[in-house]
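Exercise (ungraded).
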Amino acid sequence: MQGLFAIVGLTLKAAIRYRVVIVLSFLLLASVVVLPLMIKHDGSAQGFTQILLTYTLSAITFLLGFATLWIACGSLAREVQECQIQMLAVKPIARWKIWLGKWVGIVIINAILLGVSSSAVYGITLWRAGQLSESQQEVLENEIFVARGSALPDYPDIEPYIDEYMAERLEENPNLVDMDPTYVRSQVEEQVKASQQVVRSAHIRRWSIPVSSPESVKDQPMFLRVKFFTSRPYDTSTYNVLWQIGPPETPQRERLSMDIAPETPIEFEINPNLLDAEGNLIVDIYNDNQEALLFPLEDGIEVLYKQGGFGWNYLRGMLVILCWMGFLAAIGLAASSFLSFPVAAFVSIGILIVGFSSGTLSQVIEQGGIGGINHETGRKDSASGLDYIALPIAKGLLNVINLVKDFSPVSFLSTGRSITVSILFQALTQIVLVMGGIFAAFGIWAFYRSELATAQGNQ
Amino acid sequence: MVSPSTQEAFSSRSNTEQAGDVVISVRGLTKVFKDFWGRPKAKAVNNVDFEVKRGEVFGLLGPNGSGKSTTIKMLLGLLYPTKGHIEVFGHSPRHVATKSRIGYLPEESYLYKYLDSKETLDFFGNLFNLNTPERRKRADQLIEMVGLNNARSRQVGEFSKGMQRRIGLAQALINDPDLVILDEPTAGLDPIGCREIKDLIVALAKRGKTIILSSHLLSDVEDVCDRVVIYYGGRIQAQGTLQDLLVEPDVTRITSPVLKRETMDKVLNTIRSEIKDGSVTIDNPTQNLESYFLGVVEKARASEESTSGALAGKVADYLKGTAEEQTSSRDKVLDRLTQIEGKHDAKLHVEAPIEKVDHGKLDQLTHDSSEAFHAPEVENAAKSQADLDAANDKLSSLLDSTSDKDSDASNEKKD
């Protein structure tokens, strides 16, 4: 391991002596300090959080992400180009150790930079929170500066329902057999989903939301976070919704009436101790409007409850970001294991852009292909040859991207959600070990196979 | 402490290897460089065979682009052969543990510019799993040996080219290697540095190290190598010992202190009685420029004139190693060079080569009267004194400018 640690030390020395650490530290600190000064918040806890946490942490993630790719590509590709790698390769150290040593070095550089900048964000956020009104400070305390657990309704598996419903439909209407079965199934799926998430006009729908550790939320404030849609696109009107929360027919059951806007998540506090004997929160919604309201399965209705403090949650959030950086470092090093510096940087950034375009990939999958969409159905009428290739690729890529994108520490911290140790462990496993490991395995293999003396030194 | 794999590599050598063992075996080695599409672009090395034995100083000689460096890089596992087979200490060149026995000085300084001399040696020492006290000890000794005592905390990026070669050489020796591969080791060095490197090569060979030297500078190779291969166009054009390759069996040369005129006449008459075709040549020997230059520098050193450049010290103690005890067989290599070629003593003092002179003048010397014999001698002496004075001035100024150049170069880099 002595050789590996020597490579780690060398990578750190290079970053420090080439002033990468100093310059990036200043850049990050400037963005952390200057950004909130340039953009004024509206005095509300939400506005404050948006700017002090969401914007600054996103800026840090963005800057660090690009810097990581740049350093990773340069660290290996430049050494190959300038022939310094030859001096390492002729020494008794395995190539995988050289590769891994560089990766560890880059992750440590990131840890230092992230530590400096995130500490500044933490300090500035807490300091400036004291300048808000008392009521908004209270909102911050309860909703943001906290680690809140989340519980979603216990939806049944809809696949058997889809199969059953489809069989019924085909029996009722034999003409459906002649139609594209994929299309028919997707239509049926939408109908089954709607049955789980729509509250029709003048109807009540009940949700049962299991809370994993009822004892821990005893006497603690709880919050309902809801989001709904109507059939009207870009709907700006408000809708009156009646809520009955808590065990039915009990005195503590809470009743609320409120006008809320669609498409925007809203959050409101509910009384503590509303769980039933099984630890479920029963929520009944009465739709007192002409329009049907649709509460999506994924995030239509959610219970949030206090699980821990902000400090540790923030630290775990930063560690998840560090996992991302480790993943990016693996991408950069893998690319530079067989490509020259500019090409490696270009390829790495290309991979990153594909990662950011998961929405497009989802759309391709949803529409059943690329281009030629029937605007009435929102899908392709018939698949082309290209679609037979594009669809599996899009599905595969999306699955892979989701392994990484499922973890969003900035949005978790901005909404006061708990980043549990298990989430951190999952991030470490999925982002670093699985995804990073795939790139590392490829990079090490390419580095092992490459002839390191083909470059002519250009020092 | 050293790692088990390194220990294994180090322990196996002393038990099983002896002088004459094959250190490197190359058979049918071919390297074809290909383009992006896999089409052959250039055949850099073409069906090369050779062996290097333990304790040899083996020279790879050839013009630029003849395949020397490509061969070396394949020996080090930095390039992979297209065809053929290489064994280094009985293993593939990519065998990691074997690399602990190899020291390599590349043709350019491929060192990390942001590290200083001590850090550079410490870093490479770490790669050989040397413990901290050992690394420090070796680094100190090597820095002294290559004459960088005054620059130990300066970053390598600030060094002149010659200083970079010196620190490069030091890193190649940090592991007390059994096999030292030197690619153009004297490139960028001043004459003193060149001589020091050559002295070091001989000293290392005496200590049982195997040395591979690649160079296109014929004098470097001739001064130190036991055996050479000569490359051209990727193929070996000639190989063998210097004795085999250079000796002219149909010519005899006699060297002696200055003889009296009568004695000379007798000798010439005796020779002429056997050789009638006028191919006998006689001249006063002249020393070569390198020897003369070094003499001037020695004088300057003796008078304690200062220089900001590098001054080499003694060979690092640890390099003596266990091989020191086995030097008798290696001494034979040196002895052979000394006896047969008359070029080496224990410290590799290169004797001045005797140059051929004008045949017309020799005819005069051999056929004419005593006047004709004396006149050129007087003329030569006067001319030679004038030449020596001129050379003395020139070299003194060269020496000054060399030291100035070194300090200028480093100042420029700083700026």
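Further reading is listed at the end of the chapter. For now, observe: Residues 4-249+310-323 of chain B form a domain with the Rossmann fold fold (CATH 3.40.50.300). Chain B touches chain A at residues 3, 5-6, 9, 33, 73, 76-80, 96-100, 102, 104, 106, 108-115, 119, 123-124, 126-129, 171 (CB under 8 Å).
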